[in-house]
TrEMBL record:
SUPFAM superfamilies: Nucleotide-diphospho-sugar transferases. It comes from the Bacteria. The keyword Transmembrane does not apply. InterPro entries: Glyco_trans_2-like, Nucleotide-diphossugar_trans. It comes from Lactobacillus helveticus. Transmembrane segments: none annotated. Keywords: Transferase. One of its GO terms (molecular function) is hexosyltransferase activity. This is Glycosyltransferase. Residues 9-152 form the Glycosyltransferase 2-like domain. PANTHER family: GLYCOSYLTRANSFERASE, UDP-GLCNAC:BETAGAL BETA-1,3-N-ACETYLGLUCOSAMINYLTRANSFERASE-LIKE PROTEIN 1.
Length: 311
């Protein structure tokens, strides 16, 4: 019998008492995988910590948790990457606190990437969008998803809760420091790890099948499935609310991992860093064919943001 692959699941919690127990149990019930959980609580004021403590008593070897000040989900997950035990686990995964994982989720993800020869590996998939009772509303369509560095800068389309990645990629992520970043330009954990993997020519596997029930709640941080009004406000925020965020993350990559980046990703990063110097460079960047995430609205938004010098 083959030895089970060891995966450490990184979960950030915040006032998640309603669903966190079932999510943790779904992770611990993964088939043919040795899955343990590292939890960082981001300053919960409800019963979340008590629930985690009770589960830890039942699974003392499989659950590790610690608490911290409220940093927001972006910084909380990015801090978890720095705590990941790369000497103990071969693969790692992100987890939301209110989803529910099918028992085959991690096994399938690991099998899709473990035998690839690339030093850096990342898996992501689509999800089943559900209501709060896990009634499936629809499966998110990512058939038009486009891989690549510029595509990820254009729009982060894949959910971090689906991602599984190897320890070499985690090692690269630990080079980044996030504590002093301005709130509106802090990159998301899922967007940054996808971007880094693309920038260093890592292997990315995109699974069109779904193994996660992803609850859409009124309190959800992201906008998908929460109505037209919230979607419009979300798009407005993307368009005007994060001035300079793409330039910031481009500088971040160039200043942190230049020795690992491909020539192409470096070149595109410098185009972004320098595009405000004159209008010829601005127009050249706005017309770059690589600005394509597979969603025409997002592509237009990005090109408009460049012309308005908001990237």
């Amino acid at each position: 019998m083959d030895k089970k692959v060891k995966v450490q699941v990184l979960m950030s919690t915040y006032n998640g008492e309603k669903y966190v127990k079932s999510q943790i149990e779904s992770i611990l019930s993964q088939s043919n995988i040795e899955a343990d959980i590292l939890i960082r609580d981001d300053g919960s004021t409800d019963g979340t910590i008590s629930i985690i403590e009770n589960l830890k008593e039942i699974y003392p070897q499989r659950i590790t948790y610690y608490t911290g000040n409220n940093l927001g989900y972006k910084r909380s997950f990015l801090e978890l990457l720095k705590k990941a035990e790369i000497d103990k686990y071969e693969f790692f995964a992100f987890s939301d606190q209110d989803d529910y994982w099918l028992s085959s989720k991690l096994k399938i993800a690991v099998n899709k990437i473990k035998n690839n020869s690339n030093k850096y590996k990342l898996y992501a998939s689509t999800v089943f969008i559900t209501d709060e009772n896990l009634k499936v509303l629809y499966k998110k369509d990512i058939s038009d998803f486009k891989k690549g560095f510029a595509s990820t800068l254009t729009r982060v389309r894949l959910a971090g809760c689906t991602m599984v990645f190897n320890k070499n990629l985690v090692k690269v992520m630990t080079n980044f420091e996030f504590k002093n970043m301005v709130d509106n330009v802090v990159p998301t954990h899922d967007g940054l790890i996808m971007l880094v993997n693309a920038a260093i020519n890592g292997y990315t596997y995109i699974d069109q099948d779904a193994y996660i029930y992803h609850r859409r709640l009124k309190s959800s941080v992201t906008s998908g499935g929460n109505g037209i009004r919230k979607r419009i406000l979300h798009e407005k925020d993307i368009m005007f609310g994060h001035t300079g965020n793409i330039g910031y993350v481009s500088n971040l990559l160039i200043n942190t991992i230049p020795q690992l980046m491909t020539k192409q990703s470096k070149k595109f990063s410098y185009m972004i860093i320098n595009y405000k110097k004159n209008y010829i460079q601005t127009i050249k960047l706005a017309m770059n064919p690589n600005i394509d995430c597979g969603i025409w609205v997002a592509n237009i938004e990005s090109r408009l943001r460049i012309l308005l010098r908001l990237w």
